[in-house]
Specification:
- The chain is of the alpha/beta class.
- It contains 18 helices and 13 strands.
- Helix 1 links the parallel strand 1 and strand 2.
- Helix 1 packs across helix 3.
- 34% of the residues are buried.
C-alpha cells in the first residue's frame, strides 16, 4: 500500500520504518526540512533502539522517502497517517494547531483529487493523542473546505498508538491490541490491513471511545506508579522491603492484576474494603506520611454514592423499589452495603421506599449484621416485601442494587417503569420502560447481554 505519514517525530518515524519494513511504500511529510533530509539520507529522525537500522535498510530498498510537499504526498497515496504533535497548554488543554493545519491541507487537496478521480476514497488515520471529538472536528473541516462527504469520499479514523520510548519498535511489533475507531466499515478494513502481520487482536470501536483510550491508559499507568510509591513510602517507614511487598502483590493474577474490579458502576462496600482502606490510611497518618492517592480513594467512592442519589432524586415524587439490599448478589451481608447507605439517605429525604431481596430475612439477621441494620435502618422489616411482583406493581422507580439472575428475568417482563441500574444487569427491558444506567446506556447493556 502507498502510505503518507504527516509528522516525522517519534510516532511518525517509528511508523515510517515499521510500515515500510512490513512491505508498504511510505512517504513522510514534515515542515522541517532537516527531518525530511535525514529520512532521504536513510537516517532516523529520533534516537531509538533499532529504528536507525530499519530506516537505513528500507531507504536502500526504496520503500521510504520524505517531502515537505503535502499536496504531492496526498495525491500519491490512498492512506494518510497524522502523527504530528499535540502539546499541552499551561492550562492543560491540547494545542491542536498542527493537526488543524494538516486538516486544512487535506480539505484543499482532496477537493482537487476528487476532480481528477471521482471514485477516490482517502483514509486519514489519526495516531496523535487527542480528546474525544477531534476526529469529527477534522472531518467537518475537510468537508467544509473540500465539498466532499465524510465516510463516502473520505474517512477520518482514530488509530491511537501505544508505544513506549526506548522500546517503541518492539512495542510496534508486539502490541497488546490494535485499536481502530471508525464510523466507516470500508475505512476500518483499510486501516486494519496495515496490521495483518501483527499478533495482537484488532479491536474496532466507535471513534470517541478510541480517542479517549490513550488518556485512560496513561492516567492508569501514572496511578500505578503513584500507588506503588505511596506503598513504598509506608513500607520504608516500617522497615519493610517494599519491592517484596509489591512482588507478592503482583503474583495475584485473579484480583490484583486482572480485569475483575475494572467495571464502572456503583460504589464499593462490604466488610473488607472500607475497613482495610481506612486501616492503611490511618497507618500512613500515624507515620506522618502524605499518601494523597490512597487518602482520596474513599472520596471517589462517596462521589459515586452522590451520583446515584442525584439520579434517583430526579424522581423524588415517585414510589421507589429496591431490587437487592445486600453487599453483593447471593449474600445476606448488609455490613457497609452501599445499597443500605443509599436507602438510609433516601429515607432521610422522605422517599417512599420498599425493598425486595430474597437473601435477607429479618428473623435470621444476627451479630454484627443485625447491629449494622439496627444502627442504619432499624425499621428495615417494615420496608422488606416477600414477593418481588408486589414490589414491581407498587413501585414507579426500580433501583437495581445487586446482580441477581432473578432480577433479569423480572425486568425482562416488566413494563411502564423507570429502571435505574447500578450494576449493569443483563436485561432487554420493554420499550415502555425508561432505562437509566449509572455509567452506561441501555444499548450497551443489551450488547453485553
Amino acid at each position: 500500500m502507498n502510505i503518507s505519514i504527516f509528522g516525522l517525530g517519534y510516532v511518525g518515524c517509528v511508523s515510517l520504518g515499521c510500515l515500510s519494513q512490513n512491505g508498504h511504500y511510505v512517504v513522510g511529510v514534515d515542515v522541517n526540512p532537516t527531518k525530511v533530509g535525514q529520512i532521504n539520507d536513510g537516517l532516523a529522525t529520533i534516537v531509538e533502539k533499532d529504528i536507525d537500522t530499519i530506516i537505513a535498510a528500507q531507504h536502500s530498498l526504496g520503500r521510504i522517502r520524505a517531502t515537505t510537499d503535502f499536496r504531492e504526498a496526498i495525491f500519491s497515496t490512498d492512506l494518510s497517517i497524522i502523527a504530528v504533535g499535540t502539546p499541552t497548554t499551561a492550562q492543560g488543554h491540547l494545542n491542536l494547531s498542527y493537526i488543524l493545519n494538516v486538516a486544512e491541507h487535506f480539505g484543499d487537496v482532496l477537493r482537487e483529487k476528487a476532480i481528477i478521480n471521482p471514485d477516490a476514497f482517502h483514509v486519514i488515520a489519526l495516531r496523535s493523542t487527542v480528546m474525544p471529538g477531534t476526529c469529527d472536528q477534522i472531518a467537518a473541516m475537510i468537508e467544509d473546505r473540500s465539498g466532499l462527504t465524510a465516510n463516502i469520499d473520505f474517512s477520518v479514523v482514530s488509530n491511537p498508538e501505544f508505544l513506549r520510548e526506548g522500546t517503541a519498535v518492539y512495542d510496534y511489533y508486539h502490541p497488546p491490541l490494535t485499536l481502530i475507531g471508525t464510523a466507516s466499515e470500508r475505512a476500518g478494513l483499510v486501516v486494519r490491513s496495515l496490521y495483518d502481520e501483527l499478533p495482537a487482536e484488532v479491536v474496532v470501536a466507535d471513534i470517541r471511545t478510541a480517542e479517549i483510550m490513550k488518556y485512560v491508559n496513561n492516567t492508569y499507568h501514572a496511578l500505578k506508579i503513584s500507588f506503588a510509591n505511596e506503598v513504598g513510602n509506608i513500607c520504608s517507614a516500617l522497615g519493610i522491603d517494599s519491592h517484596q511487598v509489591m512482588d507478592i502483590f503482583c503474583k495475584d493474577k485473579q484480583l490484583n492484576i486482572s480485569n475483575y474490579y475494572f467495571k464502572p458502576g456503583f460504589a464499593y462496600g462490604g466488610s473488607c474494603l472500607p475497613k482495610d482502606l481506612k486501616g492503611l490510611q490511618t497507618l500512613a497518618h500515624d507515620l506522618y506520611l502524605k499518601v494523597p492517592v490512597i487518602s482520596s480513594i474513599h472520596r471517589t467512592n462517596e462521589i459515586q454514592m452522590q451520583r446515584a442519589i442525584a439520579v434517583i432524586m430526579e424522581h423524588s415524587h415517585r414510589n421507589v423499589g429496591f431490587l437487592g439490599i445486600g453487599f453483593k448478589a447471593g449474600t445476606d451481608d448488609l455490613r457497609n452495603s452501599p445499597a443500605v447507605e443509599l436507602a438510609e439517605t433516601l429515607l432521610g429525604k422522605g422517599f417512599a421506599l420498599s425493598i425486595y431481596d430474597h437473601n435477607v430475612r429479618m428473623s435470621e439477621l444476627t451479630g454484627t449484621n443485625k447491629e449494622y441494620i439496627d444502627r442504619h435502618i432499624p425499621h428495615l422489616s417494615r420496608l422488606l416485601v416477600k414477593d418481588a411482583r408486589d414490589l414491581i406493581q407498587w413501585a414507579d422507580v426500580l433501583v437495581v442494587c445487586t446482580k441477581e439472575l432473578e432480577f433479569s428475568e423480572l425486568l425482562n417482563n416488566t413494563s411502564g417503569k423507570i429502571i435505574i441500574d447500578l450494576v449493569r444487569l443483563p436485561i432487554t427491558p420493554d420499550p415502555t420502560n425508561r432505562y437509566i444506567g449509572i455509567n452506561w446506556s441501555h444499548e450497551a447493556t443489551v450488547l453485553q447481554h
